[in-house]
Amino acid sequence: MSRSLTNEQRIFLVKQWWKAGNTRVVNEAFQAEFPDTKIPARQAIYQLAKKFDETGSFEDAPRSGRPRTVRTEENMERVSETFLLNPQTSKKRASIDLGISRRSLGRLMQDLNLKLYKPRLLQALNEDDPDRRMEFCEWVLDSFEEDSTVLDRILWTDEAIFKINGRVNRHNCVYWNDTNPHLVIEQELHVPQVIVWGGIWSNGVVGPYFFEGNVRSQKYFQMLKDNIIPQLEEHPSFQTMIWQQDGAPPHYGQIVRDYLDDTFLHWIGHRGTVEWPPRSPDLTPCDFSLWGILKDRAYAQNPCNINHLKSLIEQEFISINVDIELCQKISRSVADRCQMCINTEGKQFEHLR
Predict the structure, then answer these.
(1) Mapping DSSP to helix (H, G, I), strand (E, B) and coil, where does residue 31 land?
(2) Crossing angle, helix 102-111 and helix 91-98, to 10 degrees?
(3) Which end is more exposed in the chain, N or C (fewer Cβ atoms within 10 Å of the end residue's Cβ)?
(4) How far is 186 from 197, CA to CA, in rounded Å?
């Protein structure tokens, strides 16, 4: 940056630095004096002042022979120590602190085999959850061995909360190391804006259905009876369909369980014909795939209000519904996930994928 400045601007910067010794004050004065020139970076100001102090000039000293490389043993040690002491520092911050360009820093980090790892969000488990997860996964794999169509017949359903800016941004959560630390975050998020119900199976997606206010058993039952089940009954595979839902309180109401018992030969859920293991979003396609796809696509279009957000969600449901191959791939991937869950003795496995 300093090379693109005029001598007048360089002299001004150095004088302001001598007077204030504070880059914020220097930047404010520079912007006021030269409003059409980009403010130099803090490190550029440091280096400019240091060079003038040491040489009495802003010009680079003449060089002889081959240009000096930054990939020296000393710089390797400096970079290694920086990320060893603070592995969560950003590349930009390290570049400024070390006085090394980001491109050169990238080469040094590559030589040191430093890689970028981002944390994964995992659902915390209770003490007896692994056993219940194992039981469910064994049922899935045993059923799949007996009937290879079983995963195509399960309709996976769930509700999700969508908000205007409702995403966990992990792009700024970084960890540099030469081996994967499997850094994870266990966190629950409850910032309600609009509650969306949806389902996915190998024949496409079902929904969306938007709940107004809190979801209660009666409201959930009315949705099933008046909106969802009549729609599903028109599908030729309805008689062999297996309904899945998690153990959320609205799903557990007696009126809901009685209705599912009367409607489906088999259904998965809390006190269903097949027991659903609690705290297992890594085993249901809605959580590990559908909601992520929908939120990525909807938020990429910058919804300006709830009605706009609802419209975007409806559009994306239509888009996914025509991609039957994607729906089949997502639904059938449950078998592999169940096997991974068994391999980890019912514990979390998403961070190991």
Answers:
(1) helix
(2) 100
(3) C
(4) 24
Span 204-230, pLDDT tens digits: 999 999 998 889 999 999 999 999 999
Question: Which pLDDT belongs to residue 138?
Answer: 97
The helix-helix angle for 23-33 and 7-20 (nearest 10°) equals: 140
Rounded to an integer, what distance in angstroms lies between the CA atom of residue 83 and that of residue 28? 32
Tokens of 262: 């009367």
The pair of structure tokens assigned to 336 is 């592999």
169-172: which pairs have CB atoms within 8 A and are 24 or more residues apart? 170/118, 170/119, 170/121, 171/118, 172/90
SS (H, E, C) 316-339: HHHHHHCCHHHHHHHHHCHHHHHH
Answer for the pair 40, 49: CB distance below 8 angstroms, yes or no.
no
pLDDT for 257 beyond 90 = yes
What's the rounded Cα separation, in Å, for the pair 73 and 57? Answer: 29
